[in-house]
Every structure is written in C-alpha cells, then in structure tokens.
Design brief:
25% helix; 10 strands; alpha+beta; 196 residues; 2 domains; 434 Repressor (Amino-terminal Domain)
Length: 196
C-alpha cells in the first residue's frame, strides 16, 4: 500500500508538472529542490521526505490531499489569473513568453502570449513542428516568412498555417510586438529535452 502510494505520488507530480508546461529545471529553481531529485521522485527511484513533497505541492499550486487522493477527478477547467501565469524568457532573443494553457490533462492545443522586442527575429533557426499554428498580432508589426512568401502582420491580423512548413519571423516595427500563438497539437515551451 505504501509503495503504491509513492508510485502514485511520483506519477501525479510528473503529470501536474507537464500539464503546467514546467521543465524540471524551472520547478527546481522555483522550489529549491534539485532537478535530479525531482526527476528521481517522478521516476519512483527515491521516496521523497514530507518536506520535499510539501515544497513540490506548493510549487505546483496544488494540495497534499489532491496529490494523495487516488479518486480525484480529472481537471476540466483551468483558470490562470494574469499575475499567476507561467512565463519564461528566451535568453538570446529576450522574447517573453506567457503560457495561457497548461492545466488540463490531454490538452489538444497550447496558447501563449509572445512579447517580442524591437528588432528581434528568429531567422537563423527556422522553426517547424507537427500540426497547425495560428498567430494573431495584438500589437506592433511582425513579418513572417513561410516557404519563401512573406506576410506582414499588423494589429488584428492573423496567420494560420501548417506548422511543418519552415517558418520564421521578425519584429519589423518601431516598438515591442505582441503575438497570441495557438498551436495544435500543443508545443511545450521551456521544457528540457532530457525529461524522459
């Protein structure tokens, strides 16, 4: 019974962290527990102390009871107040990313608000991934290039395309630009590639 409880806790911690789009490193920095320890807990390689579990619970915004409750129902609604949204910065480009989704199991899309400084561009690293993408310009001017065609998005303009097409963009305005990005299936921004 105790072994089963430990296994369920590790599995639930991993599920909650992934649903929230948090990498091992991000959770580790937030709760001051090493990422290797969190990984071992998730894989049930070690049994966490109560203190460690409480730190993880707090970092994931849940309760000990819901973590231990085997009969808990799947979450069907996720509410994120603006001040509580998960956010990250792409260091080399200084792009801010606020995650707008990440609280439901088996999500079929992801959404993020991108804050793009003047002159920032993703050109040398062309992006492509499986599925579809929708970009809605909320502020500024962003030029997208897809298959050699250029599209200038100004406030209110949107661009919907197959994500497997090589695409890149550049803020061509005189100020910060903002994009609402929706991807299906979801992409997990800021995740470490070695999460297992």
């Amino acid at each position: 019974m105790v072994e089963q409880l430990v296994i369920n806790v590790g599995k639930k911690i991993r599920e909650l962290r992934r649903q929230q789009g948090l990498s091992l490193r991000q959770l580790s920095e937030q709760i001051e527990v090493s990422s290797s320890a969190i990984h071992k807990i998730e894989q049930n390689l070690i049994s966490p102390t109560l203190g460690t579990v409480l730190k993880i619970v707090k970092g994931l915004g849940t309760t000990l009871q819901s973590l231990l409750d085997e009969q808990s129902e799947p979450k069907e609604v996720a509410y994120f107040a603006e001040a509580k949204r998960r956010s990250t910065i792409v260091p080399d480009l200084k792009i801010g990313i606020q995650l707008l989704t990440g609280g439901l199991p088996e999500e079929t899309f992801s959404a993020a608000l991108l804050s793009i400084p003047r002159g920032a561009k993703i050109k040398e690293r062309e992006f492509h991934h499986h599925g579809e993408e929708l970009q809605l310009c909320i502020k500024g001017k962003v030029k997208f290039t897809i298959k050699g065609e250029t599209y200038l998005l100004k406030r209110g303009d949107s661009l919907h395309f197959k994500s497997y097409l090589r695409h890149f963009w550049e803020n061509v305005g005189n100020a910060e630009a903002r994009l609402l990005m929706i991807c299906s299936p979801p992409i997990h921004l800021g995740r470490e590639s070695n999460e297992g």
